[in-house]
Amino acid sequence: MSRKLRNRFLGIGGVTVISLYLLFGPFQLRDASGRITAQAIAANFTWGRLTKNLAENIKLGLDLRGGSHLILQVQTDDAVRSITAGNMEKARAILQQAGIKFTNIASPALGRIEIDLEESGQIEDAKARITLDFGPGWTARTEGKRLIFEMKDEEQRDIRERATEQAMRIIEQRINAFGVAEPTIARHGPATGYQILLQLPGVDDPERVKNLIRAESRLELKLVHSGPHPSEEAARQAVGGTVPPDKEILPARERRRDPNAPPVQYYVVEKTPVITGDDLRNAQAVPAQAGGSVYEILFSLRPSGAERFYTATSANIGKNLAIILNDEIKSAPVIRDAIRDEGRIEGDFTKEEAEDLALTLRSGALPARVSYLEERTVGPSLGADSIRQGFAASIAGLAAIVIFMLFYYRLSGVNAVIGLILNLILLLAAMRIVGAVLTLPGIAGVALTIGMAVDANVLIFERIREELRNGKVPASAVALGFERAFTTIFDTNLTTIIAALFLFVFGTGPIRGFAVTLTAGLIANFFTAIFVSRALFAWVLERQGGRPAELSI
Amino acid sequence: MRELIKNPNVDWMGLKRGFILVSLVLLVLGGASAVTRGFNLGIDFAGGTLVTVKFKDTPPSEDRVRQALGRQGIDPSKIIIQPISDPISGATNEVLIRLPQREPGQKVGSSGGSDLDAEKRAILEALSTFNPPSDVATKVDLNLISRDRLRDVLLAEDPLRLVSSSGRAAAELEYTRYAEAIIQFRDRDRGGLVRDLADVRSVPGVPTALLQWLPQRFFAGNAAMISAEIVGPQIGQELRQRAISVTLASLFGMLIYIAFRFEWVYGVAAVIAVFHDVLITLGIFSLVQKEISLNVVAALLTLVGYSVNDTIVVFDRIRENVRLRRREGLRTIINDSINQTLSRTILTSGLTLLAVISLYLFGGEVLSGFSLALLVGIIVGTYSSVAVASPVMLWWHMWRSQRQAKRPVVRPKAAEAVPPGRKERRVTASR
After folding, report:
1. CA B279, CA B281: separation in Å to the nearest integer?
2. Which is it for the CA torsion B320, B322, B328, B331, positive or negative?
3. Which of A211, A286, A374 to mutate to test the interface with B (most CBs of B within 10 A)?
């Protein structure tokens, strides 16, 4: 064998060995006592060990290993609405502070605040004061006595974007705490769709995950104005029939500990909370002081919140403070002392409830509600069926092609078959390197690659035959065949890779898996069809003395 | 040398009127069907709920399934039930149930759910009616329970008295492990469904005492839901738009690539051919009312690549021959080029078809649409390289030389006279 050819084969062998190691490794060379023995090496090559390694090296997609796939959408309108409402309250406070009288303040649409002043004389003053507070994200204009503020589009977009990013972080925290192995949490779809993709391998019941995400734990501590009242009506009477704008009525549900209390009681509370969940530093589930299997939640505050909490509690000793979770009063203890930074939420929580609550309190409330757009769950048994079917289809396809190639091209068919098998090995090794997941359409991609990969061989072989027919000797026919077929192979493979790129952009999960296997297969094809196949031909020609009269093709 | 066709010498361009006729008939048939009958869009695009249910034995009759679902407030006329059989073992105990997108405001199920997964719950409730009522009333179906729920039941019932002996936290940990092992046994060893609780007598890692206790609280129901897919209306609409725009974008990408590597005319001709292939494949999907899923769109995009691929092989040869045989007419050159590449064209298509046919036969339900699209696409794509792309090229050249004949000729027959080389590409050649 010539030196050049030997080097070529060494290169091909090296690539093959590395690929095989990537697929079936790692191997252990040492036995239990740490010595390198032949037996320890041989133990690597049992069917069980090899398939186990292969299964670990090639990651399976959700559709094959089972799991849940969710697409959710952040209702970013909520975030815009809540900021509008917050600004409306601020505007009200600013006007009251400045002594500017107004008849009405309302938000008739998303991101729009309308204020009707009593006199138009102060309107410019009011506009200036509020604009200063609202900042550059809002536009202001006047219509007679009416002052109109509107949120700019880019500000709205910013708010929506932030809400989505924040929601994603919070969901990520919650999913991680839930203990899902290798979850995928990513933005999905168009940028203005505010969608999030969740892929949770091994989760057979998306319900609990959804509950955990949905769980909106909004903690608020508000001063109690009056209560408890037996009914909502009684509560309303306590404040003179109509609820003033700075107060609100909230329910407190029955606590199992007190059998004599009515099932639901009502309190009138201040609308502005003393502190909210944003001020929380930590929250944890602890067994209740009362004992038993009841749990409660202990929380501590950040310094800024603690300061406010201290001021409020020291000024209101003897009054009740409502601890409100998701608009429901959990307890309304009397403030006995000024408290600085700790509090507790009592309620007949089970351990799991208390832990979930503490978790959602720690990670903060979602800035907006989420709705579910898509939910897919695949059980592992269906995944196993798919693997079996995909594998059978690939093997059948491969077998049919191999038989045909051997029949039609005879010895040169062997050349093509070696290339095909090497192509498969390289394809899988490439997937291992880029960390791509194998999906069911991905397996289809493998089967299809076999069909397309053989195209390159066919192109070359047909060309060689043509040159032979034109009277060339085998050696130059082979050389010409490879040379002339090269551009065609390059162009055809590249167009298919371009199509696969578009597929990758279009699809998620399974379809991306298909695009990746197709691309990897076609790239491997360049190597096997041109380099490997040519080396094999060169070897065959060399063995026959370099200038054989015939070629088995 | 085994040969498929010996020295083919067909006047392909002479057949172009016949080709137009065939293409037109296929396009018109498909188009008419698309207009009158529309497409059978899968839940990926139309929205809705699709579940795979596995039964212990032969599934109950379609009517019974329909009735059971009807009792859950689902319109029986809109339910699609399709039995599926395993292509390898031939077993026929799985059924696909598809429910359409709910009308806005419509409620489903006994609890009147309006959530995205209301239909899924309704189907679960309907499935439980296929079990003995006495079991359903007092026990939990081990074939429909999830890992977390099983853990919760075990923890609540505490058959091993772990809570009192070692505390709640430790008990929770233990039961989580047992639930995991039992569910894994059900899903991996028993294919998602245990026939009988007697089957669950020995599960590795689970105490026998627990397994023997199971029948007191559990029964092995007749059906298991082994997959559930729910797609809301918004996703469907987005995906429809994206599928169309990505397909068009990929065609444009092909046009640019071929124009860059060859000439504009080649690119336009190839893209017309591919567009023709995609339309005919879609038309056939409409004709046979085969469901169009996400996978089918993936197949269509693959087809775009494949069909261009096929066209390029012919064009490459045309380009080469144009360069070698300057004096001959384009028509002869195109005919010869097709003939020279004919055996390759048939071989490759045939071999790829072999791979696709095995996918169609053995790939199972999920891949059937995918492989059908490729099956049709590869046949049409091979045909169109010869019958559409090449004639379009020829027409363009004929049209241009006619125009040049009327005007004073500055550069006579530019394309034929000085063909563009691979490297010395001539921009002027097509002007």
Report:
1. 5
2. positive
3. A374
Partners of B2 on chain A (C-beta within 8 Å) are 407-410
Sign of CA dihedral A59, A60, A62, A66: negative
Please tell me the total number of residues recorded for chain B in this structure: 431
Contact present, A518 and A495 (Cβ < 8 Å): no
CA–CA min distance A411, chain B (Å): 11
DSSP A297-317: EEEEE-HHHHHHHHHHHHHTT
Considering only CB atoms, A381 lies closest to which of B192, B348, B351, namely B192
Task: Indicate yes or no: CB of B228 within 8 angstroms of CB of A376.
Answer: yes
Helices (H) and strands (E) in chain B, counts: 16, 8
Alpha-carbon distance of A355 to A284, in angstroms, equals 7
Q: What value, to the nearest 5°, has the Cα angle with vertex A542 and ends A538 and A545?
A: 150
B175 vs chain A: nearest CA distance in angstroms? 15
Tell me A471's DSSP state: T
Q: What share of chain A is helix, strand, coil (3-state, %, to 5)?
A: 55, 20, 20
**pLDDT the model gives residue B424:** 42
Lowest mean pLDDT among A130-134, A199-203, A299-303: A299-303
Listed residue (B304, B285, B359) closest to B34, CA to CA = B285
Query: Could you tell me how many residues make up chain A?
Result: 553
Q: Which of A224, A249, A246 is nearest to A96 (CA)?
A: A246
Give the helix/strand (H/E) hosting B196: none
ipTM entry: 0.82
Residue-level pLDDT at A415: 92
A375/B351 Cβ within 8 A: no
Entry pTM: 0.77
Indicate whether A360 pLDDT > 80: no
Q: Band of the pLDDT at B419, cuts 50, 70, 90?
A: very low
Exposure pattern of B50-79 as b/e (b: 16+ CB <10 Å)? Answer: bbbbbbbeebbeeeebbebbeebbbeeeeb
Give the contacts of A418 (CB within 8 A, at least 6 positions apart): A532, A536
8 A C-beta contact, residue A431 and residue A516: yes
- Is the pLDDT at A88 greater than 90? The verdict is no
Q: Which amino acid is at A521?
A: G
Residue B431 is predicted with a pLDDT of 33
Kindly determine whether residue B302 and residue A440, on different chains, have CB atoms separated by under 8 Å: no
CB-CB under 8 Å, B225 with A408:
no
Give residue B107's pLDDT. 67
Q: Locate tokens 């307890």: which residue?
A: A331
AA identity, residue A403: I
Q: What is the DSSP string of B137-177?
A: HHSEETTT--HHHHHHHHHHH-TT-HHHHH-HHHHHHHHHH
Is 60 exceeded by the pLDDT of residue B415? no
Q: What is the DSSP string of B278-321?
A: HHHHHHHHHHTT-EE-HHHHHHHHHHHHHHHHHHHHHHHHHHHH
Strands (E) in B28-181, as ranges, are: 40-41, 48-55, 80-84, 94-99, 140-141
CA–CA distance, A228 with B233 (Å, rounded to integer)? 45
